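B., you asked whether I could sanity-check this one before it goes into the benchmark set. Here's the sequence:
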Amino acid sequence: MLLPRMRSSMPAAGRRPRSLVRTAAIAATAVLVAGPLAASAHAEPETPATPNLPAELVAAITRDLKISPQDYLNRADIAQKVATFATTAQRQFPDVFGGAWLDETGKAIVALAPGDAHEQARKAVQDAGFVAKDVAKSETTLRGEKNAFQQWLKDQPESVSKSVRGVAVDTLNNSIAVRVDKADIPLPGFVDPARVIVMAAPPVGGEGQDVPKAAEIAGAGPRAMAAGDAFASVAGRMSLRCSLGFNGVDGNGNVVNITAGHCNPNIPATGGANSPGVFQLVGGESLGPQMGSFQKSVLGNQDYSIIAVNDQFRDSFSNPLVTVPGAAPISVTGVAVPVVGAPVCKSGARAGFSCGVVNAVDQSVQVGDRLLTQSFSANICALPGDSGGPLVTGTLALGISSASSVADYPICEIPNLIGLITGNTPQLFAQPVSTVLSDNPGLRVRTS
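And here's what the prediction gave me:
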């Protein structure tokens, strides 16, 4: 689990239990925004103007994605266009539509299965400027297989059920993919043996210490707070260190910040007189003034919190910025949905900017004793303290960092190197921002 950096004077028995991150699969089918098929933009859009991306983000894009910043923006733009197209295509051609993604060159691919509407669907894909690919199964068929597998799993002995880390629709391979913790587990006949992925148990999260109270420090007051900046949450003797998510405004016009649910150290007290406080960090290590408190936290099938900002800090959070300490910010211009193959970059107070591609969406991830659903993942390293921080695609708000497969490493260079050698790259699991907004009418992300 991508733990916040925990600071506690409580005994070990009071700490959150250590737990494994269990992933459903690589490459599931996308949850997409609605839009009329006829109005879908072509896959070769006008080149968007290059914003003033900070040098640290440009370095992460070129280092991690091996593409130019302009290509990063172009691919992010195409991904949202094919997402809009795919939502309507799935409704209009449910027996034919087989999913959509970006390939390694950034081209938008739409899969089509055999059926009465195949040629009509192919024409729609081509008219929109995307590439049609013939596959054996529709997305509807694949979802049926996924549901059948989950039903089958319920009736299996614990020796089997505990060994399965998850299942998801594998859009790229037109199959369902099953993750297991060891080989040779008996599986139903409709599971392709080639799509059974053995995943060694990932490392676990960090240990607890105290966050000391800061002495009076000049200037330790209101300042601009952006997504990616560090904060500490405090409930009694327990404190957690996380990263701020996207700045926003709730349905009543109040200034808020959207971060991770597990960054709240006492969820049952949320919203009341004893709701855990959110504090500024001074010098990156010491507790500064209180900036707000948790207004709402959800931790279970989803993982998000809404922080209510104190009046004296309203101006500090009234910006649409994403940054890392010491780096120039980028300005959020809108909200996106995750698409397999889309480029994505994460900002966090611990590991800074790092980038990858979305490799699974609408998936389930077992994190300890809870099942995180509707999550997406990307091949990005994140470390304790990055929890709650923002993920963007292009300059669009995409997600909130939730869990990581490499949370026990001290620096990202180690798991990144191991990934290059073994192919088992770090995985960051995230809560889609679009889901948070749909669950909270009136809530919006600040944009420029």
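One thing to flag: The two ends are 33 Å apart (CA to CA). Otherwise nothing jumped out at me.
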